[in-house]
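pipeline: protein-struct stage 2 | run 1193 | Threonine synthase
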Amino acid sequence: MQYMSTRGNVSGVGFIDAFLMGLATDGGLLVPQQIPTVSAETLKAWSKLSYQELTLAILDLYTNNEIPADDLKKLVADSYSTFRHPEVTPVTKLKDKLYLLELFHGPTFAFKDIALQFMGQLYTYVARTRNLKINILGATSGDTGASSIEGVRGKEGINICILHPHGKVSKVQELQMTTVTEDNVLNLSVHGNFDDCQRIIKDLFADLDFKSKNNLCAINSINIVRIIAQTVYYFYAYFRVQEQEAGGAEQVSFSVPSGNFGDIFAGYLAKRMGLPVDRLIVATNANNILERFVDTGVYKPDNFRMTHSPSMDIQVASNFERYLYYVLGEDTAAIETLMNAFRSEGNLSVNEETLAKVRSEFGAYGVDNDECLDTIKRFESANGYILDPHSACGVAAAEQRGTGGVIVSLATAHPAKFDEAVQLTGIKQTFPAQIEALFNKPQSFKIVAGETSIIASELVEFFGSRG
């Protein structure tokens, strides 16, 4: 297995080098040169595996044997040793044919932990075995930052800087990032929104001289390893539903709260690998660029809106390029033309034939603030289950765009991370002890302007001071 860029000017990259590269050097995103496929017999064998064993089986298809088996087994074991549930990502039934995949049992109570705890362990391993100094740079709409920091805080040979939009993440998300005391962590609170933070990240990674001089590595979902790690829970959820659903289910649909398109792209990759997926439903909020694309074939940012689901307050989905690459028949020249046009003109569009293919694979539904809160109230009243606002968007989209078959909606965060929204429903919740303790800790972050040159100066100073 080797990796290449969606824009065609980078190919033949190994697993660890792809991991370290993050964004391809031609500005594209790395993808497998050939997606591995899984037979029905293999699926049957995998259905009996634990989450950790399943992770190893899937990673084996992508790692080129670059990591010795015993080392990889330890990396996976260490990655999930801090999770609070023995199944890592358990599945619970909400109502007839609607299941919830709980992805919030990791150390920061968000789905990002599942990939980022592994990536943190892998960065530590690579830094040690290759004797490298690694400087991780990432942007977050809330959850990626805390999960990334948790994965590498205090680790030898690794520094991390996370950009988050000032005043546009929940209080718990902010505290999880900014109460970390290890000196290899820098939090920059950026004036602007997440799209501004993400744009700065891409600009800095595209500056190959700056990237090389500062040993930059990516933690965001532009990193293909993060996507691969997220495919695991789609397989795991499918197997658990087969056990719970009377008579099994020939296919399962998934509803995915979506902002940056990474999580749902992992589901698409799992489907391409051979998982029996019927539909993938893109659940958005009022920042619904992805819903509008599925409806019209036009991908164009609109006015930014703050919502009750802030981790989805994103207008430009960085992983969307990966899907375009596949839906356009892996035509790298077409991708380069489209993405250059998007950069210069601020929008792109596909023809009717392509749009029909998109609609055959994806549904989409935008959930406004009122419907989000109503969904939280309905399910708490019906069975005492409190959804966080992002998970509520996923459930609402599942109800609106489901095909009548079995559907799994992804629960991407614990509701305690977004108590501001939950309080609006009149529901009172009890915080886990780990979250409650955050409110008594001092914070450390720096507020900066959303300009690439200013962020670059901050990075040079921070990374340079760390040797």
